[in-house]
Structures are given as C-alpha cells and as structure tokens.
Design a protein that fits this description.
coiled coil; SET domain-containing protein 5; binds zinc ion; four-stranded mixed β-sheet; Beta-clip-like; globular
C-alpha cells in the first residue's frame, strides 16, 4: 500500500534505493558516523572529475515562459488555507530569474556526518545548485544486478574509479564494495521516465553522482533531483539539483533520501538507522522547536489524507468513470487542498506538492470544470524544482497555452 501511495504522490523529493534492493542485510558499523568516508578534498578535486568547489554551470536551455507569462512564480509558498507563520517565510521567495551562473556550493567536513555540501553564497529558491553527469547510470533491469553495477564501474576511467571508491559504503564488507557503494548512494530515476523513449535509461532505474553522493539527508530538505535522461550518444544523462527553498550562505544543502516521510519521527529514525546507518538531526526530528512540536501531527494527517485519496481514486474508477457523478469529486478536492496546506506548513514544497496540484487538476476535470488554476500552481512548483526550460515545465506551459 505504502509504495503505491508513494508512487502516486511522489511522496519523497528523491530517493535512494531501499535496503531491500541490496543483496544482503544492512550492517551498521558506526551509526554516529554515517556517510563518513576516507575521501579527502584533494582526492576529489581534479580537472577530470567534479571538484570539491563546484564549477560554474551554464544556464539551462532558453525557455518560452517569459516575464509576461501568467505563471504565479512568486506565490509558490502560498496556500488558499491558513498558513503556519512559523513554517513559511513571511515573504515567500520568487523563483530565481537566472539559474546558477557561478559556483554556489562546496564539500566540507561536517560534525558527525562525514562530508556534506554547503552553500558558499545565498541561494534563491529555483536556483540550479549544481549539475553533473552520473558516474554510473543504470536501467531498472540493470540496477538489480551486481554484475551490471560492477561492469559499469569497470568502464570508468582511473580518476572516476578513485572518486567512486572514496564514496560512503554503508555495507562495508557484506557485499562487494563497488556494489555496496552504489546502493548506499544511488538516486532513483523512476519519477523521470519518458513514455515512448527508445533508451532504457529513460524508463527509470537509478544513478550515482560524485557530488550528489555528498548531499546529506534531511526530512525538511532544501534541494531535489531532476534527472535528465540521455537524449543521444553524445548527450549523456545529467543530474540537476534545484534549491526549492532559499538557502542561506554557509547552510548545508540537504535532500530527502527516503519515501517514509509521512511516518512519525520515531519510525523514521528506526528506518534511517536500519537502512542508512544514521539518525536524523533535522528540525522535524530533534526537539524542541515550534516546528518539531507540530511536525509529527501534520505528517500523520498527511498520511491519512493520502490513504483516503487512494480509496477515493479506487471508488471513482469502480463507479464513476463510465457514468460520472460530479458530487463525488468534492471530498477528494477538499482532501487535496488540506494536503496542500500541510505540505506547505512542513516546507515540503517540491515533488509532493507538484503531485497534489496534478491531482487537483485531474479531479477538477472530473468535476467538469477548467483546471487552469491548479495547472498554473503545478507549473510554478515544476519551474522551481526542474527549471524553466525543463521538459516538465515546457509540457505544462504548452498545455496552459492551449487552454488560454
Ligand atoms: Zn529528520
């Protein structure tokens, strides 16, 4: 049930493969020193490989969503319902006009978490923090096979192998280190599948990046992955990381590793310890703060709403698809609006929020109404998490233009 709900709502901004995809039971060597590796900054810095201080990235491709667009980019954090002032900035940030043009992050040692990625300047919401080509990129079929992982590793050049082998290995000794490192650091690409593509790497799977592997976890993350599948042999896949909330200079850049974000703190910590070998110290996990005090209750409410929505969807498919009854859409729309409000309060304004707007548009169409408002909100979030020129943004912008 949970996996299906997660798929429907994209309940995590990005995810690494769960431990059950590994070939052995996870052994926790040193829970207090998770993601710690033997790598030093100098081992990573090289003209052939991602450096510890991220080089400039070029702006994404030109976009036809101009300043005259009706896209409500500035009200991304606004909800039609009451907003918890403690959780949302009083002046919700607009989307950065320009994507990253200069380095804005670097790898540093952290206290108790091994290495981490930190902002070297103030980063606006909507900024492309960095992009890199994966060291290894595998299809759904290949990612299950130790042989495929090892073959991909052996195809790397010497410098890349050195960078790869310096990454954190949660399962030290239990499996081949090349395989252990892959499962300890890879990101799922399932959410970025392109229907009809000939390339198996565009149908989900996973990938691992040198710099991406240095991002630590938070249940209240500030960046998320947007995976760009390879378009032709000369244009390999790319991992893009967008800041969907502003990040102050010196603050750590954090992503969400797991799909259990709607569980309470206690259960989440058990999962982190078992699957990743650490305990989380984010503002949702560690007391005392006003945010922490409300977080468990909000996440519990979100979980109930998502379960209810799954039931309402089944009910619709069973009874209403052939002979729609508009009154049946009122409850799911109310549940989704409540979910939107809770996500904003929990600062989870990336993929889960995008999927809520997508669902709101779907149910609005089922009610026989025009979903423009929800599509505009979906586009605003999509721009924030994937850039103005991404295929997601351009597709949605095209849809809105057709409706205009
Ligand atoms: Zn946490």
């Amino acid at each position: 049930m949970e996996d299906r709900l997660v798929e429907q709502f994209g309940a995590f901004s990005l995810s690494r493969l769960p431990a059950d995809k590994t070939t052995s039971i996870v052994r926790i060597d040193n829970p207090s020193a998770s993601k710690q590796s033997t790598a030093t900054s100098s081992e990573i810095g090289s003209e052939h490989t991602p450096a510890t201080s991220v080089p400039s990235t070029s702006p994404s491709s030109p976009c036809n969503i101009g300043s005259t667009s009706t896209v409500p980019t500035a009200d991304i954090a606004l909800s039609p319902l009451d907003i918890d002032e403690t959780a949302v900035p009083s002046n919700p940030p607009g989307v950065s006009e320009d994507e990253t043009e200069e380095s804005c992050c670097e790898v540093r040692e952290t206290a108790g978490k091994g290495q981490g990625l930190f902002a070297t300047r103030s980063i606006k919401a909507g900024t492309l923090v960095f992009k890199e080509s994966p060291l290894i990129n595998l299809s759904r079929q290949e990612e299950k096979s130790s042989k495929s992982i090892k073959a991909a590793f052996h195809a790397l050049d010497r410098t890349q192998k050195k960078v790869y082998k310096a990454l954190f290995d949660l399962q030290k000794g239990d499996v081949d280190p090349v395989v252990g490192i892959y499962y300890s650091n890879c990101y799922s690409t399932d959410a970025f599948a392109i229907e009809g593509s000939d390339d198996p790497l565009a149908h989900g799977g996973s990938c691992i990046g040198a710099l991406a592997s240095r991002i630590n976890h938070s249940c209240v993350p500030n960046v998320c992955l947007f995976y760009v599948p390879p378009t032709d042999p000369d244009k390999p896949a790319e991992m893009h990381f967008y800041a969907f909330r502003p990040i102050a200079k010196g603050k750590e850049i954090l992503s969400n590793y797991n799909k259990h974000m709607f569980n309470g703190t206690k259960k989440r910590q058990q999962i982190f310890l078992h699957q990743y070998g650490f305990t989380c110290s984010c503002e949702a996990c560690v007391p005392p703060s006003a945010f922490w005090a409300k977080s468990d209750k909000r996440r519990g409410e979100m979980r109930k709403l998502i379960e209810e929505l799954a039931g309402l969807e089944q009910e619709w498919e069973k009874h209403n698809a052939s002979s729609p009854r508009p009154e049946i859409v009122r409850r799911p729309i109310a549940a989704l609006v409540a979910l939107e409000s809770l996500l904003v309060k929990e600062k989870l304004i990336d993929r889960p929020l995008r999927n809520v707007y997508k669902s709101l548009a779907k149910w609005t169409v089922r009610a026989g109404e025009v979903p423009r408002t929800w599509l505009e909100k979906e586009l605003a979030v999509t721009v924030l998490i994937s850039g103005k020129g991404s295929r997601w943004s351009l597709t949605l912008d095209g849809e809105l233009r057709r409706q205009a």
